[in-house]
Structure formats: structure tokens, C-alpha cells
Amino acid sequence: MSFALARQKGPAAAWDNLRSERSKKRKSGSNLNKRVPNKPKLGTWVRTLAELTSKLFLAGVVGYLLFAGWTFLITTPRFQIQNISFQGNNILSDAQILKWLGPVKGENLIAIDLIELSQRLSENPWIQSASIHRKPPQGLEFKLTERVPYARIKKDQIFLVDSFGFPLSPERPEYRNLPLIIMQGEKENKFLEGKVLGSLKTMHYFNKLPFFDNNPLDAAELIGHSRVLFTTRNRDIQIQMSMDRMDEGKNNFLLLLDTIEEENPKIQMIDLSFKDQVVIKNRFNPSSTLMSAKSQTN
Question: 164-195: per-residue pLDDT in tens?
Fold first, then answer.
């Protein structure tokens, strides 16, 4: 009886085995397809190559157009510089600036190097700063800030300087009214230390006072390393001060002004270089008058 049951189940078991064998073959086939990459078709390669070629051709055309356009801009006479204008130059003339710059007219407005022109201008001692702007199609505009002569310095020769001590040029006739600083045996950088500039400012301050209306201070001589001697235009009054105590000396002189104007002495020299003391020398009396600056404030 058991033999009969085994034979009845035989076809069903065989069908199950067949289905399992097919499933295994399908799975092994799908795994095989995953492992072996698909070979690209010839049409895909051709399409990719054509697209790359067209892009390269387009880039070449654009590059050529840009090159041709730039070449046209820098060679066409339409952009040749013909009109040059200057603003802010009161000391230097337009012709002097153009001579310093070199050939600019006829240059191409697009290709000209404005940074180089600005650097070239900054090398001129009279020009403190400069800005340059293109004015198409043929214009160039310069805006300048010039240095202003502040004093004359006498060492080996007399030359002009601005308020920062920057040397400008040898003395010019139109600036002979500026204060003269006489430097004897001093180093040139002494002027740049600030003390001499402070002395110049003190001189300008004194010249605004009524006492110097008709006879202003116009010369300053450095004495040693710390003193300065101011002299009036008529060379009849001298004021000596310490460059280390300029403010104190200035205050002491202001305290003396009322006394000087009331008594109107024939003063030859006022020495303000001492601390808390003022020495006055009279032209007709060789002896000196010693005054205490502290006592005058009481």
C-alpha cells in the first residue's frame, strides 16, 4: 500500500522539480547578464563624436570672433586718443604734464595702460596723486592733486618743500616770499623728523599776530640739534626757540605781547628757548633782560 502512494505522488513531485530547475536557470541567467556589460552600439559612438566636434567648432568660432573684435578695437582709428583734458593742475601747465608723460596722443584708448600712466605721473615731485578716466571714443581725462610749496630749504642749494617736507624743485622766483630754513651741518632727514615742520607752523602762527603785520618772520636757521632762530624780513628782530618746547615758547611769547606793544622797545632778540624764562635783548642796550615766564602769569 505504501508503494501505491509513492507512485501517485510521483508526477507532482516531478513537476515541482521542473519548476525549481527553471527558476534556478532564470536566476543564473540574470546574474550572468549583470556581470557581462553591454557593448555600446556603433551609433552611440558616432553621435557622441559628432556632438563633441560641434562643440569644439562652436568654441573655435566664438574665440575667433572675440579675437577679431579685440583686434578691431585696438587698431581702428575711431579709438585713437585726440582729446586730453587736465583738472586740478595750478602749478604745472598742460604742456609740462604732457611732456612728462611722453607720447599719449594717437595711442589707442582701449589698449592704453592707465595704471602705468598713473605711476608715471606719481614720479613727478609736484604731483601728489592722479586719477585717469577714459572718455570714449577719443578722450582721456586727468584729475590731479598737486603738492603746495610750504617753505624753502637752504643746504647745498635752495629748494622748495611742501608741508610734509617733500622736496619739490630748486627755488623758483615766484616762491621767494616763502619762509627760508637754513640748515648748516644738519642731516637732510632732520627736516623729516617733525621738529622743523613744527617750527614752520610756529612761524606761520606768529605771522598772523598784529605784532608781525609789517615785518613778518621769513627765515629760520637751525642752531645745533634743538634750537631754531627766526628772523624778520627786515632782519632787525630775532626770536630763538627750542624745538623741543615749541608750545611753551609760543605761550611765553603771547604773554610778552602786551608788554612789548605798550612799551614799544627796540627789541633786537627774544630768546624763548629757556624753560620758564624769557631773555630779551635791546638793540641800544647790550645787556639782556631776564624775565620769568611764571611771574607774568600771576
Answer: 888 999 999 999 989 998 876 554 455 545 67
Q: What is the DSSP string of 187-203?
A: -GGGGGGSHHHHHHHHH
Share above pLDDT 70 across residues of the chain, in percent, rounded to a whole number = 76
- Among 3.40.50.11690, 3.40.50.620, 3.40.50.300, 3.40.50.2000, name the CATH number for the domain at 151-297: 3.40.50.11690
The pTM for the full model equals 0.66
3-state secondary structure 48-101: HHHHHHHHHHHHHHHHHHHHHHHHHHHHCHHHECCEEEEECCCCCCHHHHHHHH
Cβ neighbours of 19 (radius 10 Å): 10
Residues 92-150 pLDDT 10s: 999 999 999 999 999 999 899 999 999 999 999 999 999 999 999 999 999 999 999 98
pLDDT tens column, 263-292: 555 788 999 998 888 888 887 765 566 666
Cα separation, 126 vs 138, whole angstroms: 27
N- to C-terminal Cα separation, the chain: 150
Domain map of the chain by residue range? 80-146, 151-297
Cα–Cα dist 110/80, whole Å: 9
Cβ neighbors of 248 (< 8 A, separation 6 or more) are 272, 275
80-146 shares its CATH topology with 151-297: no
Residue 82 near residue 138 (C-beta atoms within 8 A): yes
CATH 3.10.20.310 matches 80-146? yes
